[in-house]
Design brief:
The structure holds two protein chains of two kinds. Helices cover 78% and strands 0% of the residues of chain A. Chain A is built from 14 helices and no strands. In chain A, helix 4 packs across helix 13. The longest helix of chain A is centred in the N-terminal third of the chain and has 35 residues. Chain A is globular, with a radius of gyration of 20 Å. Chain B is globular. Classes of the chains: A mainly alpha, B mainly alpha. The interface between A and B is large, with 47 and 45 residues.
């Protein structure tokens, strides 16, 4: 508990306020930057004084604003998923992409596209929830059936194996049903297909998932001290875990159905956040929301800048940012013994 | 002791003989199946020079080189995996998981990206330079992983974790470069990266054959060092083996085998992991038995996977790497559950 004291509540509040300001600024940047750059004054007018006659206003309202908001929501969802997974499993490497959750969602999506071509957006979203759920179940099954439980290494390896297998099956479906184009978008991870529907999906799932996450955050803090300790303190760990898994599914499922496989956000954000606000999940969860949003909005801007006028999948950008971090974790915590 | 060694040798011969028969059977199955069916009788007739010209073209120019390549790549990856598992004393090591395959892949894609204009695809020169590019990439990846995993020595678990990270980083770079390629190279690279015996022709066979013919016998010759290393570093240096230099030499052989195989077959994951396990299960822990059995099991597994890939959803051809992953990933998970 001593760690809490080092980070006073005041400094944590200030950090969160700064993060909110940074998000607003980067969303403004994301909206104004594009094939034709639009100055921030026009952006302001398009949002608060919309004039449908102007092309620039339409571009902002129909394309850029939903994209920037989607990026923020996807980043927030993935970061919170990662925070919950790391807290529940006490495993520094736990995160949606490492554990194959995102690949499970992608597989469910391709199956829907292959067998139910007339599928609605709602159908796609719910199928990606189910796919994510099955992948989580698989990884946890491997963990619970192995002696010694889920060590960080085993979890990473099981995740890699299950992810590779799910991705292979996904490729078979997309090859056979000529869905490479549709799936390529999801597998690389990108936000170019987002619209207001995506924002709505992410908002609904985000509110549900984040409410659960905030609600159980205190219990996760207790759980992260160790299961025996938590039981000793009179906590019903089973119920907390069920809520945690539901939150992870809702958040990851929605994020993947909109933006595809965006790796490493869920892995690195909780670590950065823990470094700043300490080990109390009542602070980790909300701060992860903000930092996740900020990271993905900025990564999306970079993905458009790096090879303009072509877009680089945002998943590649987050991987490049995340890999050094993963290596650092592998050297410090995972590789100790 | 002598008696049991003799018994073991006899067992080795029985297993090798059975595997060879299986390979021969699959060889004919593979030759006769595919988008264009040729009955086994016709296959035999064609081999002895009595087939139609169409059958001759399909067999000698397309299927035969592809099958021979599959055999060579399977053997190469399997031996590479056996060596890596031996020197890291880690049952979960494999050129794919450690990121060596992706390193080779990145080098090949960079080569295609910068020089695809200079060489016609499939031209003799490109075919011979490609393995070299892959080799350079594989060595670079192995070096990077080794350095990054170094922290007062190289711990086997850290090695695997660092490998996973390096793998992810290379994959991201691959995606970025691939998207900047022209559509034709892009498709070529995509298929290649999923693990496919693409552009199978006799030139590729000729390019790969020397690597296998030289490196696999050296690996077999070094089997004793691998056995000693399995006892752990302390025992090994106590027994007078200069552990570090032997390990580096063997690592180089493993990386070269993986690099050459990847150049021809793309990113085939899990094969190098699973095959040595099967060999160990059949023959026990001694590498003079594990390596030859791995050669045959690896060749067989890749040929079977290739045949399944061609026929499962015909006319859609599924890259062989996908089939290998689906067949072996569950086995890997099973191994994971059993390892402490």
């Amino acid at each position: 508990m001593r760690e809490f004291i080092h980070h006073s509540s005041m400094s944590k509040v200030i950090i969160n306020i700064l993060a909110i300001l940074a998000i607003i600024f980067s969303i403004g940047l994301s909206v104004s930057y594009g094939a034709t750059n639009i100055d921030l004054k026009t952006v302001w007018q398009a949002v608060f004084n919309f004039n449908p006659e102007l092309t620039s206003h339409q571009v902002i309202q129909e394309l850029r604003l939903p994209r920037a908001l989607s990026a923020a929501l996807v980043g927030a969802s993935l970061a919170v998923s990662g925070a919950i997974m790391q807290g529940m499993t006490r495993n520094p490497l736990a995160s949606p992409s490492i554990m194959g959750v995102t690949d499970g969602a992608a597989l469910a999506l391709v199956m829907m596209l292959a067998f139910v071509p007339a599928v609605t957006t709602a159908g796609l979203v719910s199928s990606s929830f189910i796919g994510a759920g099955l992948a989580v179940a698989l990884v946890f099954m491997v963990g619970s059936f192995s002696p010694g439980g889920l060590t960080p290494v085993k979890l990473a390896l099981a995740g890699v194996a299950i992810a590779t297998m799910l991705r292979s099956i996904t490729s078979i479906f997309s090859l056979h049903f000529n869905l490479e184009r549709e799936m390529g978008f999801w597998l690389a991870g990108g936000l170019s297909g987002t619209n207001w529907t995506s924002v709505n999906i992410l908002l609904i799932s985000g509110v549900v998932g984040l409410l659960i996450a905030v609600g159980i955050s205190k219990s996760i803090t207790v759980l992260s001290l160790g299961e025996d300790m938590a039981t000793g303190l009179g906590q019903n760990n089973g119920i907390i875990k069920i809520f945690g898994v539901v939150a992870v599914l809702v958040l990851t499922g929605a994020a993947v159905s909109v933006a595809g496989v965006v790796g490493f956000v869920g892995l690195i954000v909780p670590h950065i956040v823990r470094f700043i606000v300490g080990t109390d999940y009542r602070w980790i969860v909300p701060t992860s929301i903000l930092f996740g949003a900020l990271l993905l909005v900025l990564a999306d801007v970079v993905s458009r800048l790096i090879n303009a006028p072509f877009e680089t999948p945002v998943g590649a950008i987050t991987s490049l940012i995340g890999v050094p971090f993963f290596l650092y974790l592998a050297r410090s915590s995972g590789g100790g013994k | 002791m002598n008696e049991s060694a003799a018994k073991k040798t006899k067992k080795l011969f029985v297993i090798i003989f059975s595997l060879l028969i299986l390979i021969l059977v699959m060889f004919f199955v593979s030759l006769s199946t595919g988008a264009f069916q040729i009955s086994p009788g016709d296959v035999l007739r064609t081999i002895f020079g009595n087939g139609t010209s169409q059958q001759e073209l399909v067999l000698f120019q397309f299927r035969l080189p592809a099958i021979v390549l599959a055999l060579l790549i399977g053997a190469g990856l399997a031996v590479s995996g056996a060596i890596l598992q031996g020197i890291t004393q880690n049952e979960l090591a494999d050129p794919g998981i450690l990121g060596i395959n992706t390193g080779a892949g990145l080098a090949v894609v960079l080569f295609m990206f910068f020089f695809s204009g200079q060489f016609a695809p499939g031209s003799t020169l490109a075919v011979f330079i490609m393995p070299v590019a892959a080799l350079v990439g594989a060595i670079f990846a192995a070096f990077l992983i080794y350095v990054l995993a170094w922290k007062k020595g190289v711990n086997a678990i850290r090695l695997v974790l660092v490998g996973i990270g390096v793998n992810a980083g290379f994959s991201a770079l691959l995606t970025i470069f691939q998207l900047r390629m022209d559509p034709q190279s892009f498709r070529q690279a995509t298929v290649w990266l999923t693990g496919d015996i693409w552009n199978a022709n006799w030139n590729f066979v000729l390019a790969l054959l020397p690597w296998m013919l030289i490196l696999i016998p050296i690996a077999l010759y070094k089997a004793h060092s691998l056995n000693v290393m399995n006892l752990g570093d302390d025992v090994a240096s106590g027994l007078g083996t200069s552990v570090e230099s032997e390990r580096r030499l063997l690592l180089l052989i493993a990386v070269a085998l993986a690099g050459a195989s990847v150049a021809a077959g793309g990113g085939i994951a899990f094969l190098g992991l699973v095959v040595p396990h099967i060999a160990r299960k059949l023959m026990g822990p001694l590498h003079q038995y594990i390596i030859p059995v791995s050669v045959l099991v690896g060749a067989l597994l890749l040929m079977v996977s290739d045949t399944i890939g061609k026929n499962l959803l015909a006319p859609t051809a599924i890259p062989v790497g996908i089939i290998v992953a689906i067949l072996s990933a569950p086995y890997f998970v099973y191994l994971l559950m059993r390892t402490k």
